[in-house]
Amino acid sequence: MPVPALLLILLALLATALGLAARRGGWGVLVRREVENRQALAAARVQVREEGNRMLDLSPEQLQQVLREQGYFLDRLQTQRLWVYLRQGKPVGIRGEPGIGKSLLPEALAKGLGFGFIDMACHSHLEAEEIGISWNGFKQIVDAQAYRGSGPPPDLYTLEYLTPTPLLQSLLADRPTVVRVDEVDKLNEHTTNFFLRYLDRKELVVHNMSGGTRTLRASAPLYIFLTSNEYKKLDPAFMRRTVWLDLTFPDEGVLAEILRHGAGVPLDFAARVARIVHQVRQLNLEKKPSIAEALEWCRALVDVAGGQITPQSVDLTIGFLAKWPEDVAMVKEALRRWYDTFHKAG
Ligand SMILES: Nc1ncnc2c1ncn2[C@@H]1O[C@H](COP(=O)(O)OP(=O)(O)OP(=O)(O)O)[C@@H](O)[C@H]1O
Ligand SMILES: [Mg+2]
């Protein structure tokens, strides 16, 4: 259909809609509705911001600086995303290749903000009772046996008799606390399902408590992080309760900063290593070196060759850059070629 005809149809539709609105209540109604909408949105914004400030009273720039002071470098966009997620109190999932900084991020945040830190390493045999609610049967028996019949018998179903599992500790924490659920994709289905309520409402239900069933809720702000290597696809119910941050390999400048800080080397040397690692990552490797490997390689180069990048020092340190035999051959070959080109040019 030609554009002018389409425009005419659109205008006619708009005119009809406006005509209908005008006939129902006139222009005044439309304008009033728009004003009310704007006022309601402004009020909602104030409320959302107040709630956000209660959760995390920092600007994104301050958050970036807090992480940086802990030696953790996150770019502006990712920091802004993290900031939004944290202010909404949502559990934050972190994805990305091995060695990209998934596990370190929550730890750096907790240290930087002086928050408590609770760590939970997941594996397929981890059961819900081990992380959530379970009675400490041993303590109950010991205390029951210790009772000699004078006075009222001990109440064996109070908080004191619950095993201090990571999630229970997080709810009982009396200061803001970061909870790191590391490698959540390794959890079995039963434990994953159990997690949903905790993720959703930051609460756990205790059955058999004296006085009946009790729901324990977090008393201090909780910042829940989950990391995943995508070993297994998480189910949609789980995904709904989390927001995800995809960490990607940093650009050369940021990588150089990480190396400078992490290995204590001068920026020039860090920049050279960062450039080479970036080039190596362009190769068709089975396992590309990530931030962790770049840092390890940088340290090893300083250790064995005083920071000289030569075919000999590369040969000695190749294990940090390449993990599979085919990768080793490919990286060595490429580095030798670059080295020769560079020296011929020089
Ligand atoms: N953004 C970063 N800033 C500074 N150092 C970093 C960063 N990312 C990674 N590192 C370095 O890499 C190391 C490995 O990071 P981390 O253990 O968080 O990786 P990971 O993504 O959890 O890996 P995996 O999937 O193997 O568990 C860190 O100890 C740190 O030295
Ligand atoms: Mg990790």
Short description:
With 346 residues, the chain is an alpha/beta fold. The chain is built from 15 helices and seven strands. It has helices spanning 3-25, 27-55, 60-69, 76-87, 104-113, 128-131, 137-146, 166-172, 189-201, 236-240, 252-263, 267-282, 291-305, 311-321, 325-345, and strands at residues 92-95, 116-121, 177-182, 203-209, 212-217, 222-228, 243-246.
Key structural traits:
346 residues; alpha/beta; Rossmann fold; 5-stranded parallel β-sheet; 15 helices; 7 strands; 57% helix; 12% strand; flat; binds adenosine-5'-triphosphate; binds magnesium ion
Low-confidence stretches: none
- What's the helix-strand series? HHHHEHEHHHEHEEEHEHHHHH
What is the CATH C-level name of the largest domain?
Alpha Beta
Count of the domains:
2
Neighbour order of strands in the largest sheet: 2-3-6-1-7
- Average pLDDT rating: 91
Helical stretch tally = 15
